[in-house]
Structures are given as structure tokens and as C-alpha cells.
Amino acid sequence: MLLKITNANVLDGNGQLQLKDIYIHDGVIEKVADAGSETAGQAGAYQAVDAGGKLVTPGFIDMHVHLREPGYEHKETIETGSRSAAKGGFTTIACMPNTRPVIDTPETIGLVKNKAAEAGLVNVLPYAAITKSELGRELTDFAALKEAGAIGFTDDGVGVQSAQMMKDAMALAHSLGMPIIAHCEDNSLVEGAPVNEGEFAKRHGLKGIPNESEAIHVGRDILLAEATGVHYHVCHVSTEQSIRLIRQAKEIGIRVTAEVCPHHLLLAETDIPGLDANWKMNPPLRSQRDVEACIEALEDGTIDMIVTDHAPHSEEEKAKGMHLAPFGIVGFETAFPLLYTKFVLTGRWDLSLLVERMTADPARVFGLTAGRLEPGAPADLTIVDLEKEQEVDPAAFASKGRNTPFGGWKLKGWPVTTIVKGKVVWSEGQAN
To answer: Do 230 and 305 form a contact (C-beta atoms < 8 A)?
Structure first.
């Protein structure tokens, strides 16, 4: 298939926008030329998509998502989650294994890959569990899971409580050239707590989740990563203490990388309006000091990438209130416009920094061929209308989940077309 994207505003190596035409052949970028430089005869065989001067970037990459299937299809399916990702401009997503059954066998890896292929929307990369059923008692068969297509190992949703278990996992993963992706949480410090340990918890008489519950595992795991040589990746960083440890580890050459979610860059616990469980996520919203530490760490590269931690739940589940509702918010369809509006339009970030942290940087960290807009790269592309302004409307989400604290926010910078392997998989005006 031949596809030509005309009048595309593309970021060059200096972060400047240049008007280009992008030629795609059999799902791969063939050429990027100055707009209008090819004659009609040369370009005549190509099906044309006119970007109309809108921003065109490599497709967004989200290395931390929950698709819920198998087992929790009332929350999300691989198909609905993939459609939601495409609507948000994401072309590659990596799904966590805390499903039921847990993704801890080659058969469940195969199920995820087959369902994603049937959906035919975005690239879905499955993680496999570190321990069987994520119970922290016995390692899974890492070699078999790698052979089946797992891209890394994580017990996301729970922290691996045993240091010896984590060290054994890291040593095994390193021997296979695979990363360990860690949800950092010391259970002894968080049991029964729904929100951050801070003013909101005190005001509402709630048990709080302290910063050290995350940072203790980060510090422990950095030492284990140093001992084993594994690539250690820290999930959804939310605290100043964790950032300090990651920064120090990078400075002395330990192979550690990290991610942060939009909500931990935009919201603090003081923003929570009440006991609405759409504001309940794990890690919880922290202090303003932690928010600023996360922003600065993303800016200076201590944190490598932005992820959504897309975590859909049913309205009935979230209606159970702050105590009983599950942790998590959805994130695919709001991530880019939130960050563009709050950081790029305000002048704090260059557009190139936001795009790199959502494309090239996750690709670099996890060794993906995506994340580049250049000849030879996969034709995974996102077209964004930087001038389009609209309110966040959860009822219009393609995801089954409506659980977001951002409903009603007026934002600019909405994806309008998503292309995967040279095929348009979502475009503005298309039904969910």
C-alpha cells in the first residue's frame, strides 16, 4: 500500500516545525520530502492524506497500560482499550499482566497477542508477571514467556515484597537480556490507605500512603539492579525521595530508567475536591513539592518518559467511594492535550520535549523500532490539531472506562488522525 501525507508540520532536529510530505510504502516510511517538492507524476500512485498544516509526530508510545482482558472485560477489552489508545494518538502500548488469569504463561501471552491482532488497531506489547499469579512466591518461566513474546517482567499492581525474590528475578531477567519493570510499594506501610499521607487524609480521617512506601522499594531495587546488572525500570514515579534515588543511581552508572504519569505532573492532593473516587489512583496524588520534583525530573531526563497508567473501572465500582473503590483512572484520550495545554502553551516546555518523552524516549529505553519519523521507520504516525480546543467529555471516550478527574477541563492539542503501519486506524469524526 502506498500512502502520502501532505502538508505535515514536522519537528526537525532543532525543535522547529517544517512543512513536509511523508511517503509510506508497505507500512514503512519511505521518504520525508519538502512539501510540494515531488511532481504529480512521481507521487501519483500514492493515496493522499492532507494533514493541512497540522502537527505530525511519530505515533505516541505508552509503556504502561491496563487492558483488563482476560477476566475483567466489564472494565475494558483489548479491542476497546486499543481503540481508546488510537483515539488518543497512541500507536504502541504495553499492557500490564494483572488480569485474571494473570499473564504468567505462554498461553495467556498468546491470547493477548491474538486479541490485539484481531482488533487490528494499535501495536500491543504484553508484559509477563514476575511471579506466578503475582503472589510473590514463585518466579514464572521467564525464558518461555520471552519466547512467547513478553517484552519484560513486572508484578504491576503489587510490589514484590521479598528482596531475595526480586534479586533472583533480576538475575534471571539479566541473563535473558530482559528488563524488570517494578511497581514500588511496601505493603506494610500502605494497607487500607486510599490516599496520600497528607492534609487531605487528615481532613477526612483517612489512613494515608506515605512517600517512603514507594521510595523504600526504589532504593532497595536500585541496589539489587547494581548487583545483578539488569535493566531496572521504575513504574509511575510520584515522590521526591524516589526521584532523588533514581538521579543518584543514574549518576553512578546503574542501569535504571523511570516513567511518570500526566496526573502526577498536573495534580496534587490539595486539588482533590472531596471523596470522589475518580481522584483515587495508585500511587496517589502527592504534595505540590512532589509534583514539582516530578516535573523537574522529566525535564532533566532523570525520568525518561511519560506513560498514562490507563486503568479503566466501571462506574459501579468507582461509585463505592474513596474507601472501597479500586485505584485507577483512564488516560489514553487526555494525555497529550493535558500536557500540551498545561506545559507547552504556558511556555514551560518546548513542544519537542513533550513529543520526545512520548515517542523517541520510550522507544529508546525499551529498544523499539518505533518512535522515529524518518525513512526506514515504521509508519506509525499521529496527526494533532494544536489549535483544536474542546472540553474533556468522559461520555465520549472510546474506552469503557469513564473514571477521570479531568472531566470538563478545556484543552487544546487534540489528536485527529492515528496511523499504524501505514493504515489509518482512527480519524476525527469516526464513531467510537
So the answer is: no
